Amino acid sequence: MRIVLLGAPGSGKGTQAKNLITHYGIPQISTGDALRAAVKGGTELGKKAKAAMEAGQLVANEIVIGIVEERLGEADARKGFILDGFPRNAAQADVLEGMLQRLGQPAIDKAIHLHVPDEEIVRRLLERAKIEGRVDDTEPVIRKRIEVYNAETKPLLDYYAAQGKLVTLEGVGDVDAIFASILKVLS
After folding, report:
1. What's the whole-model pTM score?
2. Is 22 annotated as a binding residue?
3. Could you tell me the domains of the chain?
4. Contact 83/12 with Cβ under 8 angstroms?
5. What is the mean pLDDT of the chain?
6. Which residues participate in catalysis according to the annotation?
7. Which residues of this UniProt protein bind AMP (predicted)?
8. pLDDT tens, residue by residue, 9-68
9. What percent of the chain has pLDDT over 90?
10. Is 43 annotated as a binding residue?
11. Relative to the CA of 30, which of 13, 84, 92, 174 has its CA 20 to 30 Å away?
12. With contact defined as beta carbons under 8 Å apart, do 21 and 82 qualify?
């Protein structure tokens, strides 16, 4: 199973990815987690990513693509994966298709979009910032991230819809009920 999880930051992609990992036994490839680890580790990649992340901007394509291709080439991703945070736009989706071909892997099976209203996203991310001590989750930065997501990432929904791979589900409500909806569309 090769799944792309789509949704604004804070839409519940990480939570649902954990459920999918347990259910299918495949890894989650989260570009956000990988970038935060690089920043924390002070790597060259992390230094480049840090300024963009703190300003609420997207990290450069080359950096994100490099992280994803490296990860998709690892043994545990051969039987399937859950992508969270990549692709961010149709151009990256094209790059992903080429990547999978080069790696000898099948194409994406489904793109699952978790729709959550913007104000709910702001509420969730401010709460998460308090709990996890995330310095990149201030209200102005969150609103900027939503704005960037709406402008640059939402057209990706059309890309996967045109391929018949997109399923949009409401990402508000009981976590288990949302997961049951995801499993239903994947079966």
Report:
1. 0.83
2. no
3. 2-186 (3.40.50.300)
4. no
5. 89
6. 13, 88, 128, 134, 145
7. 31, 36, 57-59, 85-88, 92, 134, 145
8. 889 998 999 999 999 999 998 887 777 777 888 877 778 888 887 777 777 888 788 778
9. 58
10. no
11. 174
12. yes
